[in-house]
Amino acid sequence: MNIAEHQGWVSVPMTLPPEIDRLAREVVALGNGERRAPRMAEIKSEYGPLTARAVGERAKSMLKEQGS
Questions:
Q1: pLDDT digits (tens, 9 = 90+) for 1-13
Q2: C-alpha separations of 62 from 1, 10, 48 in Å
Q3: What are the residues whose beta carbons fall under 8 Å from the beta carbon of 54, sequence distance 6 or more?
Q4: Confidence (pLDDT) at 17
Q5: What is the pTM of this model?
Q6: Rounded to the nearest 5°, which phi and psi values hold at 8?
Q7: pLDDT tens digit string along 16-65?
Q8: d(CA 40, CA 53)
């Protein structure tokens, strides 16, 4: 449960910038974790840790969507 839901606030879906979505698709296309890790490290050094985290979270959600 996120903090907004816990506090009873209305949760508004956040739209990700297209760049994060593009990078996440690129990471997912790499296949297994061994091939993804170096690219994630490059993203972190190039764009910063917050962007890398957002890309990682988006990639995870894409993988979940593919699995279902």
A1: 444 455 555 555 5
A2: 20, 25, 21
A3: 16, 20
A4: 81
A5: 0.69
A6: 85, 10
A7: 788 999 999 999 999 877 889 999 999 999 999 999 999 999 999 998 88
A8: 9
Please report, as a single letter, which amino acid is at residue 66.
Answer: Q
The domain segmentation of the chain, as residue ranges, is 16-67
> Is residue 27 within 8 Å of 59, Cβ to Cβ?
yes
43, 51 Cβ separation under 8 angstroms = yes
Query: Which DSSP letter does residue 45 get?
Result: H
Here the contacts of 40-49 (C-beta below 8 Å, separation 24 or greater) are 47/23
Which residue reads 């979505």 in tokens? 21
